[in-house]
Amino acid sequence: MKSLAGYTDRISVAPGERIAFKVSAENGATSYKASLVRLFSTDDHPDGPGLGERPVRAPFDGRHPARRQAIPMGSCVTVLRSPKLEKLRSVTLAAVIWPTTPRRGRQAILGGWSGGRGIALEIDEIGAASLRIDGNVFSTGKPLLVREWYRVAASYDHKTGIVEVIQEHLVAYPRIDDAGGLRVAGPIGRSPAPRGTFSIGANAGTPFAQHFNGKIGRPRVAKRVLTPAEAMATLAYRVPKELRSAMLAAWDFALDTPSQRIVDTTANKLDGATINLPARGMKGHAWTGRVHDWRAAPDEYDAIHFHDDDVYDAGWSTDFEYMVPLDLPSGVYAAKLEGGADPEHVVFFVRPPRGRATADVCYLAATATYMAYANFRVMNRSWEYEAFQGALLQIGPEDLFLNDHPDYGDSLYGSHSDGSGVCYSSRLRPIVNMRPHTPLWAFSGDNTLLAWMDALGYRADTLTDEDLDAEGVDLIAAYKVVVTGCHPEYWSLPMWDAMQAYLDRSGCLMYLGGNGFYWRVAYHPTLPGVIEVRRAEDGTRAWAAEPGEYYMSFTGEYGGLWRRQDRTPNQLVGVGMTAQGFDCGSYYRRAKASFDPRVAFIFEGIGADELIGNFGTAGGGAAGQELDRYDRALGSPPHALVVATSEEHTDNMLLVNEDFRGTYLALGGTENKLVRADMTFFETPAGGAVFSTGSISWIASLPNAAFDNNVARITRNVLDRFLDPTPFR
Questions:
Q1: Which option is the CATH number for 76-306: 3.40.50.10490, 2.60.120.200, 3.40.718.10, 2.40.30.20?
Q2: Which of 24, 561, 652, 661 suits 298 as a labelling partner, its CA being 20 to 30 A distant?
Q3: Is the whole-model pTM more than 0.90?
Q4: Are 492 and 500 a contacting pair, CB within 8 Å?
């Protein structure tokens, strides 16, 4: 069982640069041993190459003291302490809310509460709007409905002690008693001045507590008692002119949406900041459906969705740092931590010196995809996962560890505790499945490619797609060949443009995977190490975004499938996602086009009737897990050659739902001709070329017979020809 966990402040580092390691001992260890290793293979399959790690001397080698470092979960907004807030006596608090777990106990909407004192507008233990003043709670006694909009307000008169609480539904349902108010005598002379940090969506503390689940919009603070009608009037998008002098703060969540900044529209400028990245670009109670882009209608997108399990930056202290030597070769590395249980590998990527290539081949690590799957928990939580896999559930050590550590956050496949999908994922926390001995459709599968390259003596620089997003085509322009891993699923617009520009400049691309270039993501423009996805109206997906919430908050780009934005994977690499199934793999058979002289180099040493890849560590075949097909209707180049196609897939290999046309009853591998992997090749106008295998499992078949097999032979044939400086015609 894991006892140590860690992460780094950066995922990619160049020689001469420093990287920081943050470590936590989760099971009482008092010390641990740290060492540096270079990783070549991370697969523990009995027929695979095994764990391939080579020790590298580093200044941090040796024992280090251990300590547990916590991860504070839950999002909120904080406002710095202000004399204007601390001088409050009589006050009115108001907001528009959309609660998603109102019966889960006390949840703060807005206020200042710390050390058992202060004032806060909250949801109480029965799910009703309430005002808390020090030890006193005043509730409407009317439980709020789940996922319904309400206007809520509360006031306190310092001189008379009168407390008033109001909750007003925006939609009334017959026989549902969910609106009402309370007006009672409360404590006279109490100071309602917020204690400590004024916050929205949680109560201040170390850590924050009473996190709100759901959306909050238009939070307001008035420096006097407002009548119920006045309090509700302040919840207009712009506070009415006659009430502006009464306002201490009126925050507009629609402003500066891509940032962490929360803007107060009053002259007091009590601006705030988000903590743990609550979801922004969210539709508010005034959404009409006429506009879907949050930039075009700020008054309709002025809500933030808070969650009690949001995580962005774990915020751990640094345990040790490493200055990368100038002569350290580019590759995949890890700080190996050993402390009485299974070792922890804190993985990072060493790129070549900035501005210089040290090899002709670039291996492009799919770090956006690793982040998307970070701490993947679906198999632990879904009752239908075994049917989806077509096999009994296998729980690994990382799954057990994540069960015990919800604070490590979820993947972009998970749902928050209130059922909404996780749309942000960060690498500033331990990613326990970006490690050796984890499933073959992501990090471990990709490293089998590095083991193959090492065994055959190929040199390759390692770069990440995060580097590509930041630096564009200049990052890869000097390389003759770019090679992907098995599953580069998540791609941003800068990454896409850079790869297209590389191909337009005569570059050669080997796409050795499946389900690539599928979901559009965005990196945050200023915050490091976080990506966003909006799972829009189509796609094979674990959750769907709410209607009207398809535009990404980081960049304003429309989210969802690249295929739905007329940038299909087929256009870029010849093939695109067509099916998925995880019970077993299959093989390829050569197609007629494989005998075309244009592709003779691919099949040197391969028999005409030879089955290709009827073996492998991922389901026993090179065509498996997720498959891509050639399709002219989806933009596959007309001059591309389909040189091999997979066969004999089971009915657990299912057509993707974006290909449902009309009423489809034939969805499985024995029934539908679209369920297949197509191996393709095509030349680019500038003399480059693209080779695609169309299967996640291709790389997992490389190690068979000590890398002496037809999958390895084809891969080597292509790489050797792509390294040849002779242009393709």
A1: 2.60.120.200
A2: 561
A3: yes
A4: no
